[in-house]
Design brief:
The protein has twelve helices and five strands. The chain has a five-stranded mixed beta sheet, sandwiched between helices. Strand 1, helix 8 and strand 2 form a beta-alpha-beta unit.
Length: 265
């Protein structure tokens, strides 16, 4: 259960606000001595512990869908509804002292949360990187879009091949970049290796971007052309410059750990 908490919002303001909201609901019932809002809230939380916030539920959901991508929606449902109810009631239906308390607690949640909205523990800033993404993601995505827009490609969108680590984050930051390698191809390769029986074109690209494998450069070039890939993003440590230059794939930008290559037509 601790692993699920760490993976899904355990250190963010959302979970903090959720706990505060439950406390307020319970305090309201104790103060008024009527209604069942507090007991219902605690019951809902306990049911959430049983059916959502635990490893068993995580594994069951993972059998049906991709747990690493979609389980967060199950996680957030009980949290967001309780937060929305409690803070909305305090701000718009409460007395002045209730409104002050709600505003005060909301500020505390912002202070406790990390890198969300305009305030974090260290800075007041504009939220350029509100999701806490790897700086490589921001640099590479911005360079791709800048180069693509300079080429005046109209309404078309750039297609790029990343390693699996970058791919999941790129879609959060810059959804206009089209994936050159499908998730299914990555999952197949992870289970079966490079047997080239399925997703043949994409497996050549996976070998290059994930592991820096330098085997058949012409096969890689055919894969890039047939898949319509415009950019490759590969770890700089793989030292792929000379290998890729043989097939007219040239470096155009670099982040701290990755090099961005453009596939020449």
């Amino acid at each position: 259960m601790a692993g699920v908490f760490r993976q899904y919002c355990a250190d963010s303001l959302y979970f903090t606000a959720f706990v505060v909201s439950l406390g307020l609901l319970w305090w309201k019932e104790c103060k008024t001595g009527q209604g069942k809002i507090g007991r219902k809230a605690v019951t809902a939380f306990l049911l959430s512990i049983v059916f959502v916030f635990n490893e068993v539920a995580y594994q069951i959901v993972g059998k049906v869908t991709d747990a690493t991508s979609y389980y967060r929606f199950f996680w957030m449902l009980p949290i967001l509804f309780v937060i929305a109810y409690q803070f909305t009631e305090k701000f718009f239906n409460g007395r002045n002292d209730d409104k002050f308390m709600a505003a005060f607690l909301f500020v505390i949640c912002l202070a406790v949360g990390s890198n969300f909205f305009f305030i974090d523990r260290e800075h007041i800033h504009r939220p350029k990187n509100i999701y806490g993404l790897d700086p490589d993601v921001l640099t590479i995505a911005d360079e791709i879009m800048a180069d693509w827009n300079d080429g005046q490609n109209g309404e078309e969108l750039p297609t790029a091949a990343f390693d699996i680590y970058l791919e999941y984050q790129i879609r959060t930051y810059e959804p206009r970049i089209v994936w050159g390698i499908s998730r299914q191809a990555y999952l197949y390769q992870a289970s079966n290796g490079y047997d080239l029986k399925k997703y043949v074109r994409q497996q050549h690209m996976i070998a290059a971007v994930n592991e820096g494998i330098k085997e058949d450069s012409r096969a890689l070039r055919r894969s890039l052309d047939k898949s319509g890939v415009d950019y490759l993003v590969i770890r700089t440590a793989f030292d792929m410059d000379s290998y890729l230059s043989e097939i007219s794939v040239m470096p155009i930008a670099q982040s701290e750990n990755y090099t961005l290559y453009k596939v020449s037509s």
